[in-house]
Specification:
Elements: H1 4-11, E1 35-48, E2 51-56, E3 59-65, H2 72-84, E4 88-89, E5 95-97, H3 99-102, E6 105-110, H4 132-148, E7 153-155, E8 163-177
Parallel strand pairs: 3-6, 6-7
Antiparallel strand pairs: 1-2, 1-3, 1-8, 4-5
Helix pairs in contact: 1-2, 2-4
Length: about 180
C-alpha cells in the first residue's frame, strides 16, 4: 500500500484555489467545478441492464459530477483530496485512517445531476454540466489518478442508466467541490 507521501507525489500538490465563485441567491454556486458526493461504505455495486459492472468491499462510493468549465487540475485536486480523506476509524474509533490504511476501494459513478440548478421552476436545469464528451474525458482522468495513487478503483458505465446499491457505513457522507 502506498504511503501518504507517495500518494501526494503521484497526484501532485493540489492547485491553489480557483477563481472566486459567485454565490447565487439560493446559496448554490453558478460557476462550474467538479462536485462529488462521497459515502463511506461496507460494500457497494453498480449494475447496468442486469449485469454488475463494478463492485467493492470496504471503501468509498464517489458520485462524480463534471461542470462545463472543469479542467484536469480540478480532477487532480478532487482525486487527491478523496484518496487522502481520513474517514475510517482507527483503534480508538476516531476518523483517522484513509483508504490506503484500511485497504479500501473506490466505486466511482458519473452523475451529471449533481450540477443541477433547481432555483427556478420545477424542472432542474443541467446547463452547468459538461457536455458528455468532455465529462467522459475528465471522469476517465479522475479514475486514472485514483488508480495511479494505488487505490483499487471500480467504475460505473458512463452515460448508462445504472442501479447503485450500497451499504453506507455510519452513515458517513460528504459533499466535495474541487474549488471550495
Amino acid at each position: 500500500m502506498p504511503t501518504a507521501g507517495l500518494v501526494a507525489s503521484r497526484l501532485g500538490h493540489p492547485p491553489t484555489a480557483g477563481p472566486p465563485l459567485s454565490p447565487h441567491r439560493s446559496g448554490q454556486y453558478k460557476d462550474g467545478y467538479v462536485r462529488a458526493v462521497v459515502q463511506r461504505v461496507k460494500r457497494a455495486q453498480v449494475t447496468v441492464e442486469g449485469r454488475v459492472v463494478g463492485r467493492i468491499g470496504v471503501g468509498m462510493v464517489v458520485l462524480l459530477g463534471v461542470a462545463a468549465d472543469d479542467t484536469q487540475a480540478d480532477a487532480r485536486e478532487l482525486a487527491a483530496r478523496i484518496v487522502r480523506m481520513r474517514i475510517f476509524a482507527d483503534a480508538a474509533g476516531k476518523m483517522n485512517l484513509d483508504l490506503a490504511a484500511v485497504g479500501g476501494q473506490l466505486l466511482v459513478v458519473s452523475q451529471f445531476t449533481l450540477l443541477a440548478d433547481t432555483t427556478s421552476g420545477r424542472r432542474p436545469s443541467f446547463a452547468a454540466a459538461a457536455p458528455p464528451e468532455r465529462a467522459r474525458e475528465l471522469y476517465r482522468c479522475f479514475l486514472s489518478l485514483c488508480r495511479e495513487a494505488g487505490i483499487k478503483t471500480e467504475e460505473g458505465e458512463f452515460g448508462a442508466r445504472m442501479e447503485v446499491e450500497l451499504v453506507n457505513d455510519g452513515p458517513v457522507t460528504f459533499v466535495l467541490d474541487s474549488r471550495r
